[in-house]
From TrEMBL:
Keywords: Oxidoreductase. This is Alcohol dehydrogenase zinc-binding domain protein. InterPro entries: ADH-like_C (IPR013149), ADH_N_2 (IPR041694), ER (IPR020843), GroES-like_sf (IPR011032), MDR_fam (IPR045010), NAD(P)-bd_dom_sf (IPR036291). It comes from Exiguobacterium sibiricum (strain DSM 17290 / CCUG 55495 / CIP 109462 / JCM 13490 / 255-15). CDD domains: PGDH.
């Protein structure tokens, strides 16, 4: 059977479309020494990939035009010339968006499929869980009784952030974009308050839900939501800046200047990248695994089925079509 890959067909201006992507049939090379042939099981679609579609300086290299898009993938080994991996092993790595790939065995990491569903290696026990863990605990440092606000609260990172903040004894206010998400966050995850930013006036809603001000704001979206939060910070508030998805498809996203707001609150706003915490991934994986297995940390996945769904799944991130981690299952 012929295999397929998805390449970047054009650099999007503004919001990507299906024409941003092109499917190609591929011939796979024979395995060299220390390589594996892997069959893709799950593909992770992530907001940061939008940035890599631009030809602009950033923290990661732009995707090349007409070359395969790469992202987080969970796959099964179907052939191996490596001592590290055997046929049947499940692995995770940064791989091409393809139905099968030939890769160096060192390019992937074996996962223990008996511990948790393998898809969690791309979500709560993978990059998104780590992002929530380090951004919230290292930079946000929430204390018992403090008010923590998180945007994109029903998404992959946000839903974990809110729950870890609850574990630490904070009062948690989520911001999300649909009635179903509000219900999920309140009833399933135990958030104290949730704001629907699409139907409520964000400033008024923050005043109502955060009567004692905001001590930690976990920033996932930027834009008008971030602006409204900055006006309501308590002294010495902390703002881990994880993402700013509301601006990823914008040419220019102008907002108020933040310096005075940070001075007034003596607040600390810090961008971070999960990759900077590589040396501590083991610590996070162990803690997240414990919380998941004892039921303190719940996770949700929105799964699109089939390789032909990958572009639509990616575009769905910008429509809020996901609750929890957005994945494509092949
Ligand atoms: N710094 C790092 O190392 C790092 C690592 C991973 C992720 N991130 C960032 O973290 C954020 C969340 O990533 P994720 O993977 O967990 O994605 P996600 O939250 O699962 O999915 C994106 C969500 O963003 C919301 N959204 C989309 N457009 C929006 C807009 N214009 N205004 C407000 N909300 C909007 C949607 O939910 P609604 O229905 O609520 O609108 C959507 O479900 C992203 O900004 C991402 O870039 C950073």
């Amino acid at each position: 059977m012929s295999e397929q890959q998805i390449v970047l067909a054009s650099r999007p201006e503004g919001r990507p479309t299906r024409d941003t992507f092109r499917y190609e049939t591929i011939e796979l090379d024979a395995l060299k020494a220390d390589q594996v042939l892997v069959e893709t099981l799950y593909i992770s679609v992530d907001p940061y990939m939008r940035g890599r579609m631009n030809d602009a300086r950033s923290y990661s290299q732009p995707f090349d035009l007409d070359a395969p898009i790469q992202g987080g993938v969970v796959a099964r080994v179907v052939e191996s010339t490596s001592d590290l991996l055997t046929v049947g092993d499940t692995v995770v790595g940064m791989l091409d968006w393809a139905t099968k790939s030939v890769v160096d065995a060192k390019q992937v990491r074996k996962i223990d499929a008996t511990l948790a569903p393998v898809s969690t290696a791309l979500g709560v026990l993978g990059m998104t869980g780590m992002t929530a863990y380090f951004g919230l605990l290292d930079i946000g440092n929430p204390q018992s009784g403090e008010t923590v606000v998180v945007s994109a609260a029903a998404g992959a990172v946000g839903s974990i952030v809110g729950q870890i903040a609850k574990i630490k004894g904070a009062r948690v206010v989520g911001i999300a974009g649909s009635a179903e998400k509000i219900q999920y966050l309140k009833e399933e995850l135990g958030f104290d308050e949730v704001i629907n930013y699409k139907t409520e006036q964000i400033g008024e809603a923050l005043d109502r839900t955060c009567p004692d001000g905001i001590d930690v704001y976990f920033e996932n979206v930027g834009g008008a939501i971030g602006d409204a939060v900055l006006d309501r910070l308590n002294p010495f508030a902390r703002i881990p800046v994880c993402g700013a998805i509301s601006g990823y498809n914008e040419q220019a996203d102008l907002g108020p200047r933040v310096q005075s707001k940070l001075i007034i609150a003596r607040a600390r706003m810090q961008g971070f990248l999960v990759g900077d915490y590589g040396k501590r991934f083991k610590e996070a994986a162990e803690q997240l695994g414990k919380w998941v297995s004892n039921g303190e940390l719940k996770y949700e996945e929105t799964i699109f089925e089939g390789f032909e769904q990958v572009p639509d799944a990616f575009l769905g991130l910008f429509d809020g079509s996901n609750t929890g981690k957005l994945l494509v299952k092949l």
